Amino acid sequence: MSKRRKKKTSILKQKFTLKMQKKLVMLFMLVLLAFAGLIGRITYINASSGEEYAKVVLDQQQYVSRTIPFKRGDILDTNGTKLATSERVYNIILDAKVLASDKKKSADHIAATKEALQTCFEIDPGTVDTILVEKPESRYSILKKRADYDSVQEFYKLEEDDDDIRGIWMEEDYVRKYPYNNLACDVLGFSVNGDVGLAGLEASYNDTLNGTDGREYGYQNADLTTTRTVKEAQNGNTVVMTLDANLQSIVEKHLSAFNEEHRNEAQEGAGFKNGAVIMMDPNTGAVLAMASLPDFDLNNPRDLSRYYTEEQLEALSSDEKLELLNSLWRNFCVSDTYEPGSTIKPFTIATGLENGALTGNESYTCNGSLHVGDYDIQCISYERGGHGAQNLRQVMENSCNVALMEIGMAIGVEEFIKYQHIFGFGEYSGIDLPGDVSAASLMFTEDTMRVTELATCAFGQSFNVSMVQLATGFCSLINGGNYYRPRMVRQIQDAGGNVVETIDPVLEKKTISVSTCETIKNYMYNVVENGSGKDAQVEGYDVGGKTGTAEKLPRGENKNVVSFIGYAPQDNPEVVIYVVIDEPNVPEQWRSSGIVSKLAGDIMAEAFPYLNITKRGE
What we know:
Structural class: alpha+beta
Strand content: 15-25%
Distance between the termini: 124 Å
Number of strands: 25
Largest sheet: 7 strands, mixed
Helix content: 25-40%
Radius of gyration: 39 Å
Shape: elongated
């Protein structure tokens, strides 16, 4: 080491004396004491006044949380036409604290905001003033619900052009809409309280149509900067029906025209008490159309003004109005039962052929009535002395009650009841609609059916069915004996249109043999060609079917259910139609099966070309 460097080190040692070292240690200790004191003070404040200071901080940091509603799934017809959908709407929300936060310019902000709200949404300025006075710190006050998209866009444009508009935000929501109003109302049903299905497919597929709400969380600071965490809503699935909206329109048009044609103000106005039509694919159980009158507007289902005057409605109690509404919303095709009348005769003859009670070579003599038990039970030919001698084909053509009673007794109670259940009578149909009824309580058992009941049941009186029961059983009569479960839905799609479930036809049982099916079809073809169903003929098509007339209880009051059930083409049937008119507004209801056959023929004449049903000779 050089002499100069040694000298410099000696000087530094002399300057950094022991006294200076002591002062440095004391300074260090003072700093440590200061830090210790600060930590102690913070601990004391946190223990004694922590909540108070936390409230001051949180007052500058507004917590926000809102529900993000899901979109309920659509209901589509088989071709993809939307028959039920959810349209986006908006709730108009006022943040009073934001609107009045700038004290210097709050008057300008309030005036501009009130003017924009009145212009776009017709919101009374006084509503805003009331909130600002009564709830000046409120961050969420609903000014209007279900504002439409166009109004909201108009407001956004004003807000963009005028910086003084503030404190308003839009909360998204959805409202259920039915673009075709009353079309297929009984099938679709409607929802209440947003997403609760009350009737029809809206009810039976409620869980499928509904999704899951999302949520937005976050903190909003005093400078209105918000940090958000969003959990997106999961929208509901879409239900695709077997029903064809175009075919449904055809059916409803003709049913309404029939109602108007037979309207008579002297006889309570309407053309019938109830009128309904079902069209099905007999080879799959798919319902192609299902309609009934009276109907209702799905967008305003509680409106009774179409059927009752204002004075009549005012006189009704709440319970009475609810009873009327429930009756209006009830699906006649699924939930109402009635005696089927002569439409049951093909089933009775098929039962006899199937279990060996009939060979097909039988002959009968009808003198207009038959003595059974303690009663003389009349045939429809009673007034003219009976049908005379008839074979089985003529029995069906002429709808002879006498012959059917004899056939019923030949079958016997046990076998008759057995085949009633094989054909689905007294059983739930299994259709995917609410209100499916079994009518089991209106059926006889082996213990309760006597010879008189057997005779009357054989021609369609003394027991009840629903339309969907009879139509489904009838499909098996003409398709070779295959009983398919009736269904309204063929597919479920997710919100993006991807298929998540395919609902295939369900073959539940075998009812009759192919040979019995062909025999019954030949008989029913002659009913339309030569018998009671001639008014159901459609030019260019081979149609088979059967008419029905059932006298309602109490007997003797000229109240009847008249009907026609048919199919086309004769070979390999492609469609079934069932028309029921409950109490047609005509003088002699029991003679009115012809007008119902004509109604069926009118529907088929327009529907068959649309459905591309095979024509005669093709």
